[in-house]
Amino acid sequence: MFRSAQRGIAPLIEYLAQSTERGTGVRVYDRVIGNAAALLAIKAHAVHVMAVTGSRYAVDTFQRYGIHYEFRHIVSSIINRSKDGMCPYESLSLGMTPNEFYEAAYAKIITDGIVTGHRQ
Q: Looking at the whole model, is its pTM more than 0.85?
């Protein structure tokens, strides 16, 4: 089991960056899952994702990749922390593959100082 006190997509980035072995059967549980988290969950080989709130973009991505998901509430998109626009990672993730998004998000998170460390 992997747990993190980080917010947003940082825990998934940490998991992917630190994990030398990504097995099958990964399950992801969170309060909010947007398209950014959906792409990272797919890269982590998730087979099941559960959240209180998920975005329509995440739904579309999970359906496209055949990943089982459960959301109590579905919203059009994930909003940013200021609540005045779309989450920057949700926006960045649109139109990307899981690998493309991971590379872009990892670079942004390291640059922003949200996660430190080295990838395996």
A: yes
